[in-house]
């Protein structure tokens, strides 16, 4: 019986993709099932803070990735 060897290798390691970096405000990598883009709550989707500095939460994109629904 080798039934114990399933599912241990999912989702933990998605690195090395230039252009798909996660930002501090992201809950998951872009394209992750069950997640979607939403406006960054820190900068209201502007990508900048009130003083004009790039928003660190979304990396200046104005959008973050967060889980949909959840539970
Ligand atoms: Zn932001």
UniProtKB/TrEMBL annotation:
UniProt region (Disordered), positions on chain: 1-61
Gly residues bias: start-end ranges: 1-18
Name of the protein this chain belongs to: Chaperone protein DnaJ
């Amino acid at each position: 019986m080798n039934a114990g060897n399933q599912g241990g290798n999912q989702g933990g390691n998605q690195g090395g993709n230039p252009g798909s970096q996660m930002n501090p405000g992201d809950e998951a990598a872009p394209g992750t099932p069950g997640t979607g883009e939403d406006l960054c709550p820190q900068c209201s989707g502007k990508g900048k803070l009130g003083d004009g500095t790039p928003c660190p939460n979304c990396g200046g994109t104005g959008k973050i990735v967060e889980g949909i629904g959840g539970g």
